[in-house]
Specification:
heterodimer, A: mainly alpha, elongated, B: 213 residues, mainly alpha
Chain lengths: 66, 213
C-alpha cells in the first residue's frame, strides 16, 4: 500500500491533473483504510471551496454591508 | 464618456462627471466594497501600488460596462470577476518584466518530515482530524481573516502559484508557462502550499474552534 506521504501528494495533484488509473486505484485503496487521509481529502476540498469564495467576494468579510 | 478616463475618475463624486443617475448609483455601490477588493488584490499582488491600480481598473471597467450588467444584486461578484482578470494582467506584466524567480524562497519538502513516521505514515498527533461543518466556519468573519493571515505566511513564490491556481482559477499549464516552471514543479509547489495552509488553518482556527474529532 502507498504511504500517507505519497497519498497526500496524490490527493493534492488530483486537484490539478487527471490521475492515472493506477494512481486512482492506489489512492482509493489507501483512503478506504486510512481515516487521516480521508480527513485530509476533505480538508483540501474545504480549502479549495474557501479560496473560491474568497476570490468571488462572497465571503463574510467586514465592510460588505452597505 | 471620455475614451481614456484616468483611474482616479472612477472615485470622483458622480456629479463632477455628470454621470447618469444609474451610473452614479453603481459607483456608490462599488465604493461600498472597495476595501474588500483592495484587500483581495493586495493578498494576490503583495504590492500596494499595483493592488490599488488593479482595483481602480476593475472599478472603471465595471462602470463602463454597467449597461451590460442588469442584475444589480450580483454586482460584487461581477466586480470581483473583473478584478481577478486585472490581477492576472498585473501578474503577467510583472512576470514578463522580471526574470523567472521560481525556486527563490521556497519551502523545502523536508519541512514536512515531522508530520510523518519514517515509513511515511501520519504521526499520531499530526494525523488530519475532522474539521466539522465548513459552512459554520465560512459564516464567521474571523475565519476569513485567519485564511488571509495563513496565505500571507506562505513564502511569496509559493503563495503566487497557489493563488493563481485557487483564486484566479488558472490551469497549472498556464501557470507554469507564465512562470517558466515545469508542470511537475508546479504540482509540488501547490502540494506544499496546501499542506502548509491546512496546518495553519488547523492550528489557528479549527483546533481552537472546539473539539471536533
Amino acid at each position: 500500500m502507498i504511504s500517507c506521504r505519497h497519498a497526500a501528494r496524490l490527493l493534492s495533484e488530483a486537484l490539478d491533473r487527471p490521475l492515472s488509473a493506477g494512481e486512482r486505484a492506489a489512492l482509493r485503496l489507501h483512503t478506504l483504510l486510512c481515516i487521516g487521509c480521508r480527513n485530509y481529502r476533505r480538508q483540501l476540498a474545504l480549502l479549495r471551496q474557501a479560496c473560491r469564495r474568497r476570490a468571488s467576494g462572497e465571503d463574510a468579510m467586514p465592510s460588505t454591508e452597505d | 464618456m471620455p475614451a481614456d478616463p484616468t483611474a482616479a475618475d472612477a472615485r470622483k463624486p458622480a456629479a463632477s462627471r455628470r454621470l447618469p443617475e444609474e451610473a452614479a448609483a453603481i459607483v456608490d455601490e462599488l465604493d461600498g466594497f472597495r476595501r474588500d477588493m483592495l484587500r483581495f488584490a493586495l493578498l494576490q499582488l503583495r504590492d500596494r501600488a499595483s493592488a490599488e491600480d488593479a482595483v481602480q481598473e476593475a472599478m472603471l471597467a465595471a462602470l463602463e460596462s454597467a449597461d451590460r450588467f442588469a442584475q444589480r444584486a450580483r454586482l460584487k461578484t461581477w466586480a470581483f470577476s473583473i478584478l481577478r482578470n486585472k490581477i492576472v494582467d498585473a501578474i503577467r506584466r510583472r512576470t514578463r518584466e522580471a526574470s523567472c524567480a521560481a525556486g527563490e524562497n521556497e519551502m523545502n519538502d523536508d519541512d514536512f518530515n515531522p508530520l510523518y513516521t519514517a515509513d511515511g505514515h501520519w504521526q499520531r498527533e499530526m494525523r488530519p482530524a475532522t474539521w466539522g461543518n465548513p459552512e459554520q466556519a465560512f459564516e464567521n468573519r474571523s475565519f476569513w481573516a485567519v485564511l488571509d493571515a495563513c496565505l500571507d505566511d506562505l513564502p511569496p513564490a509559493t503563495a503566487r502559484v497557489f493563488m493563481m491556481r485557487e483564486m484566479l482559477g488558472l490551469e497549472t499549464g498556464e501557470i507554469c508557462r507564465e512562470l517558466s516552471m515545469t508542470a511537475n514543479h508546479c504540482w509540488v509547489v501547490l502540494h506544499r502550499a496546501r499542506m502548509s495552509l491546512r496546518l495553519c488553518l488547523d492550528q489557528k482556527w479549527f483546533a481552537g474552534a472546539g473539539e471536533q474529532r
